[in-house]
Amino acid sequence: MKSGGFLLGRSLALHTTRTLATSTAARQGPIAMAAHQRYLQVWLAVSLITYVLSSSGQALIASSVSKGDYRSVKDVAYLFFSSNSQVEKEHNKRNTPRSTSETDN
User: Fold this and answer.
1) pTM of the shown model
2) What is the pLDDT of residue 5?
3) Would you kindly state where each structural domain of the chain is located, as residue ranges?
4) CA distance 54 to 60
5) Whether the Cβ atoms of residue 32 and residue 25 lie closer than 8 Å to each other
6) Which of 36, 56, 76, 104 is surrounded by the fewest CB atoms within 10 Å?
7) What residues have CB less than 8 Å from 32, skipping those under 6 apart?
8) One GO cellular component from the entry (predicted)?
9) Is the pLDDT of residue 102 over 60?
């Protein structure tokens, strides 16, 4: 029941926040509502992609652990952590402010 309670609390908080954001956007007019809808769709797509990746990682690790193949567990964990690290590096590289010498040219 303990983990079920946390899951219920998380779901209620998520739906409450989404409902409040939608009602606030609706009060601001059609342009704000359209923008909110667009970002909601992007958020949903990204959250589903991360859910699929985490589920597949958990399945691969569980299968390898049940077979006693701990080398595969290490390889899968390295693959998932390195891909996350690579995405973070690309994000930081694109969002790093340029130095004044680069912007003057």
Assistant:
1) 0.53
2) 84
3) 2-96
4) 10
5) yes
6) 104
7) 25, 26
8) membrane
9) no
Contact 33, 26 (CB under 8 A): yes
Contact in structure between 76 and 57 (CB atoms under 8 Å): yes
Half-sphere CA count of 41, side-chain side, radius 13 A: 5
Rounded to an integer, the average pLDDT of 47-68 is: 87
Q: How many CA atoms lie within 13 A of 60 on its CB side?
A: 16
pLDDT at 19 (0 to 100): 93
CA angle 39, 79, 73 (to 5 degrees): 125
d(CA 18, CA 6): 18
SS3 61: helix
**Percent of the chain predicted with pLDDT > 70:** 78
Closest CA to 32 of 18, 44, 22, 46: 22
Mean pLDDT for 16-26 is 93
